[in-house]
Design goal:
It is built from 12 helices and 14 strands. By secondary structure, it is of the alpha+beta class. The protein has a domain of 364 residues: Di-copper center containing domain from catechol oxidase (di-copper center containing domain from catechol oxidase). The N terminus and C terminus are likely disordered. Its main location: membrane.
Length: 530
């Protein structure tokens, strides 16, 4: 019944957030290299007439990159998004979006001035109704076409440098699968040659900020296509799990009765088609994933290579990882030692923090354990367990941020692998986000985790937040008022004392201050200072 009701939402779609804005996927935009669509509210590019933003040249980071990618000018993702566009909307204040028509994460209201913090909850703490609603929302996203975004089916060169656009429609869920693929795909070098040691979302400092943005965008999109502004992604706390606790038909789909590599026919996910899983085929054709169906979701949890992933992560693994004080170290890739990022991502041993790519720990361990669609990087987001898993990974990142309180400068500004420096824009997001912008506590981005909340403290902070924000906006006036008040106080105090000396002890009771009895008048401590 819920699925039927959600079907009516097909006619009230709201903007999504993702790859190429439909309004910019045309010859004119590509040849002019400008993506500054009009905001629907006033019809002006970037909502400039309403002071929401303006069309500006993109400012690219000039910081040096690491040695992992020894090429230049061969990949559309280099200096993202300059191969396609060098002018986009730059939004003011709390406005955001490819046309400045949205609010930044953590803000709402017509003028984006209302702060909000929503709570992500453990999937096993949801009521039956809440859990069923979440599953229905997932299925809805898989069956609704994105209204504002399309995907590229060819490289910029294959598009004849913009004169022959190659884009196609895609549903909302698969839009995010495609983005994950596009960020992690190999570089096509021509002929049958590819470069595999490149990834704009993994194996480097941007791994955690990139997936944080990915989840925020995915969460907001679900809120919009369903009209449920209170929706948040649930997480699966997999610490010390003995098996895949969500792999049953009540949650994310059980095992097929006759084929252990497939999902149970009783699960709504058994009918889903995966996309972007045939990387070798795309590489041999020197092409991109076109998002056509490539078969059902595959999953066989626990029947993985035990020599690589002998078990699921433990609480002790997580605690050791959180104790690491360095966010990044050394080459800042999967060979980094004593790196919190590399240990959480799973390329370093969760008991020693020494790099060991032959083993898979923490984040990587879950992917390998699922032994199917989720185990191949480029197509891993096809399995809806992906969002539950990465929500919990993000919560561990959040715990580290709260424990160590790093300054922004802790995130590497230079010499990280391509796309991962602090000021690099994340591939393939439009609107543009820099890696460093999401190296901050989640509450500043409008969300929290249920198991990380401190009720009394948080409620007090929530009470104070709007007043502190107002105070920041008018601090200069407050300082001026304080100075002026001090001057007035000094003048009044001087006049009062002068009058007191002039009147002496002969002042009659008729002209004494009304709130001071005559016998208390000479008691200085009774008089209050202004």
């Amino acid at each position: 019944m819920l699925l039927f009701a959600l079907g009516f939402l097909l006619v009230i779609l709201q903007p999504s957030t993702g790859q190429f804005p439909r309004a910019c996927a045309n010859v004119q935009s590509l040849l002019s290299k400008e993506c500054c669509p009009p905001w629907d509210g006033d019809g002006s590019p970037c909502g400039e007439l309403s002071s929401r933003g303006s069309c500006q040249n993109i400012l690219l980071s000039q910081a040096p990159l690491g040695p992992q990618f020894p090429f230049s000018g061969v990949d559309d993702r280099e200096d993202w998004p300059s191969v396609f566009y060098n002018r986009t909307c730059r939004c003011e204040g709390n406005f955001m979006g490819f046309s400045c028509g949205e609010c930044k994460f953590g803000f709402s209201g017509p003028n984006c001035t209302e702060r909000q913090v929503k709570t992500r909850r453990n999937i096993f703490q949801l009521t039956t109704s809440e859990k069923n609603k979440f599953l229905a929302y997932l299925n809805l996203a898989k069956n609704i076409p994105s209204q504002d975004y399309v995907i590229a089916t060819g490289t910029y060169t294959q598009m004849n440098n913009g004169s022959n656009p190659m884009f196609r429609d895609i549903n909302v869920y698969d839009l995010f699968v495609w983005m994950h693929y596009y960020a992690s795909r190999d570089t096509l070098l021509g002929g049958s040659n590819v470069w595999r040691d490149i990834d704009f979302a993994h194996e480097a400092p941007g791994f955690l900020p990139w997936h944080r943005v990915f989840l925020l965008m995915w969460e907001r999109q679900i809120q919009r296509i369903t009209g449920d502004e209170n929706f948040t992604i649930p997480y699966w706390d997999w610490r010390d799990a003995e098996d895949c606790e969500v792999c049953n038909d009540e949650y994310m789909g059980g095992r097929h009765p006759t084929n252990p590599n497939l999902l149970s026919p009783a699960s709504i996910f058994s009918s889903w088609q995966v996309i972007c899983t045939r990387s070798e085929e795309y590489n041999s054709q020197q092409g991109l994933c076109s998002a056509t169906g490539e078969g059902p979701i595959r999953r066989n949890p626990g029947n993985n290579d035990k020599s690589r992933t002998p078990r699921l992560p433990s609480s002790a693994d997580v605690e050791f990882c959180l104790s690491l004080t360095q966010y990044e170290s050394g080459p800042m890739d999967k060979m980094a030692n004593y790196s919190f990022r590399n240990t959480l991502e799973g390329f370093a041993d969760p008991q020693t923090a020494i790099s060991n790519p032959a083993q898979s720990g923490l984040h990587n361990a879950l992917h390998i354990y699922m032994n199917g669609s989720m185990s191949q990087v480029q197509g891993s987001a096809n399995d809806p367990i992906f969002v539950l898993h990465h929500a919990f990974v993000d919560s561990i990142f959040e715990r580290w941020l709260r424990r160590h309180r790093p300054m922004l400068e802790v995130y590497p500004a230079a010499n990280a692998p391509i796309g991962h420096n602090r000021e690099n824009y994340m591939v393939p997001f439009i609107p543009l986000y820099r890696n460093g912008e999401f190296f901050k506590p989640s509450r500043e981005l409008g969300y929290d985790y249920e198991y990380l909340q401190e009720p009394a403290l948080q409620s007090f902070q929530d009470f104070l937040t709007p007043y502190l924000q107002q105070a920041r906006q008018i601090w200069a006036w407050l300082v001026g008022a304080a100075v002026f008040g001090g001057i007035i106080t000094a003048v009044l105090t001087g006049l009062i004392r002068a009058c007191q000396k002039k009147k002496g002890g002969g002042t009659s009771s008729e002209i004494q201050p009304l709130l001071i009895e005559s016998e208390d008048y000479n008691n200085k401590s009774y008089q209050s200072n202004f």
